[in-house]
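Run log // design_07
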């Protein structure tokens, strides 16, 4: 199974070990899927990436760091899981720097449907190498959120 990396279907998979909670309905908890996309792991999380193929619309090396424990948001992670994710992120950066030589990085969490987190609600950190020659170079996460078309209509409250 290949993973889809677009706005509708973010690639899904994950691992469980016998010591961590697992949700059988969660694709991020599926051991078989994980094996196909795993690049590296540590004690409590794994980095998944496209490993050699570049799905349409995805920058080379893009992937996600996923904790083994099935938790909905980064706010639900233990201090140890947060430290392990950050430590793996540093190793992932070394790997991506050596393999792809990106010009920068965009990192992101989507929390809740309104921000783009789709079922399963299994926390994952997006790691996106960025390149000077890409069409959206210089456009970070906030670029799209700051567009006039994204403005909310607010009622004026009387005090």
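design_07 sequence
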């Amino acid at each position: 199974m290949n993973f889809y990396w677009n706005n509708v279907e973010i690639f899904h998979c994950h691992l469980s070990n016998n010591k961590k909670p697992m949700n059988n309905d969660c694709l991020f908890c599926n051991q078989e899927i994980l094996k196909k996309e795993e690049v590296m792991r540590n004690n409590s999380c794994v980095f998944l990436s496209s490993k050699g193929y570049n799905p349409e619309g995805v920058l080379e090396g893009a992937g996600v760091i996923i904790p083994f424990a099935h938790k909905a948001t980064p706010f639900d992670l233990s201090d140890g899981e947060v430290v392990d994710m950050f430590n793996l992120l540093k190793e992932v950066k070394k790997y991506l720097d050596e393999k792809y030589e990106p010009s920068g990085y965009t990192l992101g969490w989507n929390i809740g449907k309104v921000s783009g987190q789709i079922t399963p609600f299994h926390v994952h950190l997006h790691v996106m190498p960025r390149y000077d020659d890409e069409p959206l170079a210089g456009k970070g996460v906030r670029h799209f959120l700051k567009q006039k078309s994204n403005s909310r209509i607010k009622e004026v409250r009387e005090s």
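The longest strand covers residues 125-130.
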